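Below is a typical protein record.
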Amino acid sequence: MDTTGIKILKKDHMSPLELEALKEELYLPLPIIGEETRKSAAKKLSQAILEGQTSAIEIMADAIVRSDNDEVINTAKTSLNDIPSPIAVESLCDYILINKNFPVEHIIINNGYKPANTQKRVLFYVITRQWQEYENLDLKQDRHLLKKAYQNTKAQIKERLLEVICENGKSKILEEILILRDNKAHMNQFSDPEWDSIITIFETLKRYDDLWDLIFRAPVYYSYRMFNILDQAGYQPPVTDQTIWETLKKHPYQRIILSAKEIQHQSPVQCLGFSLDGRFFATGDSGGLVMVTDQENFQLIKKIQYPDGVRCLGFSPDGRFLVSGCSDGLVRVVDVEDFQLFREIRHQNWVNCLAFSFDGQFLATASIDGVVKVVNTRNFQLIKIIQHRSGVRCLGFSPDGRFLVSGCSDGLVRVVDVEDFQLFREIRHQKGVNCLKFSSNEQLLAIGTYNTVELINTQKYQLNKRINHPGGLRCLGFSPDGRFLVTGGWDGLVRVFETHYFQIVREVNHQNWVNCLSFSPDGWFIATATSEGKLKISQMILPGSVNEVSGHDLGGINKLLDDETLSPSDKSALKFIQTIILGKLRFDVIIEEVPSTLLDRDVIIERVDAI
């Protein structure tokens, strides 16, 4: 590599801040930064790679596809064509496993770069489409090497691998990593990208018999998607399956069915929450009333009247305490065994929000004056006070317990490391932050401002996707399995998004703006509350898999079909799901031995005999 004119850096590596500054110089507009400064930044990064600093590799790899300056691009290509150390080569290979970057991929292939680790190498050959290299691997010692490598790798790499497999029609590789034939029970754990890949590749290769078989082993949404593919292709199932085929054709399906109950407050409901142990559901209103109901049938258990409005509440993860934050500046901790006051935490101004850490060790409360207090839940003693420049509107702990995130009225989101309560990252917005929530799978942080939802990748706390939210956004939440994101708006609409492509799958209308919402721990209910005091409990019917259905599930659907408040389309959807369950059970009985768990369920055997 020609290093003429490149300034030699000092031997110790550049700090992350120095690297970030050089990265900015690569992409700032020319009128601001100047062409010479941009070229100089590229040369410094190139020299850093020469000296073995792996952190510069990702920046230069991105520059090849992002830069609009030919000299920067050529400098980046040259530096990646002459990587001096095995560690740097490994870093570049790691980069291409996650990022789609064809120019860098060509550089890697032309230079013969490859990971040292065998499991990583087998994934690398598939993702870079080096099929001959993949075939040449000696898999005699471990014929399931690719499957093991797939299972042990990160979700981002899995998605890249599945994308390449689908684009190139490699159905044998897909079946090898997912073991479609050998382990039906394992299908219950497939992710959405995995189901997408299976369906896409089977449709492309016209493996319609396989799709028909999978209909009765897939989550309901994917069952319906496969059914539509088969119907549009003019597929005819085996003669023995004609009856169930015709039955399915009569029942159009919506992917989420909502059946609502209502709880009425006299004042606007400002907060609500479910206990994780499945016992209680609590709501708080601006008149200071907290109503506690049971989660099974939402019957009233206890009313608690406070002297001022209740702005936030939550149950401790162990289900022992119900904590409420009020407009009088008091956080009240109540023991749910007798609903007596256990402890108080005092703020100088009204309390806007509170959050427990997932392990239950910490409780954080925040007020309109920007003060966040963190207490230890063993004795509710103060551990730390964090001062913000403006009012804190929302709080949340990351699922791994490492970070406390706060959103403020000035548009600033602060990510604080819980180990030492030092600032880790800031995310700035032009408008105030109204709400935030982590997904349970630890992959996403959703941040809501007035008219947008930002999805932040929690690996690096960088923006993953932005969703426009017309009508104004007040609250949001993820389903426990992470498959759905629900938002509530000033326009009275509750919008349900699936979290793979973030498309709206359902909308529920309220008469007034939506103040708050929450999923039940089992994911079966969404509770939403409005400014007029009305609270809806919406039941989600089978959002997951029918792989583990039982007589209880079937009975629940049959009971719902008698509900006169359901719309005709919802009833049709329920009938489709009912038919899928019956068909799935029928397949189990006819094709396989009857599982021992089903032998004592007469309703199932009777239903099977009735088909």
